[in-house]
Amino acid sequence: MVKRSIWSGVVFSTLLMFSGCGGDNAYDGTGLAGGGVQSSVSTAEIFKSLQTEVFAKHADGFVSSIATLKSELSKFEATQNETNLLSLQQSFLPLAKEWQSVEATYIAGDYDSSMRDLPILIDNFNQGKRDVTELLDNSLNAGSSNLYRNDMKAIPALEYLLFGHQATATDMLKLMTEHNGTRIDAIGVTLDYLALKAQKIANFYATDTKFVGDTEKGSDVLISVMATNAIKLKDWRIGEAGGLVAKYKDKPDPKRLQYYKSRNSTEIIRTVIKTHAEVMGVQSYENYGSFGKANGAKSEIEEIEAILNQALTLTNGIDPIEDAIDTLTVNPKVEALYDEIQKLNNTYQGAIVKALDITPDIISIDGD
């Protein structure tokens, strides 16, 4: 279970240190460490850039990817062959990637209570005690596409409906046609469910002004979300499968990987890392990293960039990670990647501690 703390005032103070005296609404930096080159870009412009270039872009991409999968489902339903099945399955990865990018920087729940539970309704990976595959099989074997629980319509359920347990194309085609195509109907129900939630997120980012309008809360929320996401990446998406966390110490099992059924886990890990780089790394648009480097936190931001680059390099050596882990052995690069993401979280927190000359126990983000 991941518990996200709210670092009240801490991250905003860091951003004030970053901004120095640039812009009409800038803080004068009195009493804070740092300094360095001053930026002419205002804090509000930085937040607007992030909302447009990262949050809204991926939310819109999530909506579009669902529509694409729906279109491929219609083609497959009309002509049920392996070629169309493979096209349908291939449309799943873009959907999963866009969702994981949305989740990595999901700040909407902190501004609108109706948005708070959307992530777990969309993706209940590692949350909940029921085996969704068993629930789905019970319904499908009864010839019913009545997916009566939310977790039966979430992304892990969609992955199972499309891929089974790493089923071959031949076997999957057979499953699709059983019970008068009930599985096809269930995929349609799942996509309709996800489309409604994806559109709600896209609408929020298209119209929200609170994130840009309140930079104190915005900076607090953004870095809290990203640090927590780094913990999920380390523990949930790498550590549990690799037997690297206390709960499963020295008991690796690739079936714990998030996208084991579709063998897409490495692509998703890579996507999450790239999304962090969109916020913190060198980009064509202004972001938290570029602004920080120009205003007194150059070394901290460069350390994050180096960690993200190294993490991406490591993913190339474990692609797919499903083949890098079995119940007896784990590729050493899996543990190296785990350690690198731990550095990422430490650096997020360490940069704040250093900038404000505070003790580390002020920040509390726990993962198990």
Q: Distance between termini?
A: 6 Å
Radius of gyration: 22 Å
Percent of residues in helices: 55-70%
Structural class: mainly alpha
Main attributes of the structure:
disordered C terminus, mainly alpha, 15 helices, globular, 368 residues
Any overview of this molecule?
The protein has 15 helices and no strands. The protein has helices at residues 10-19, 43-78, 82-90, 92-104, 118-122, 132-141, 155-163, 169-177, 182-207, 210-213, 215-242, 265-280, 288-294, 298-316, 332-356. The protein is globular, with a radius of gyration of 22 Å. The termini are close together. The model is unreliable at 1-39 and 355-368 (pLDDT under 50).
Compact summary:
The protein is mainly alpha-helical and 368 residues long. The chain is built from 15 helices and no strands.
SSE blueprint and pairings:
Layout (H helix, E strand, L loop, with lengths): L9 H10 L23 H36 L3 H9 L1 H13 L13 H5 L9 H10 L13 H9 L5 H9 L4 H26 L2 H4 L1 H28 L22 H16 L7 H7 L3 H19 L15 H25 L12
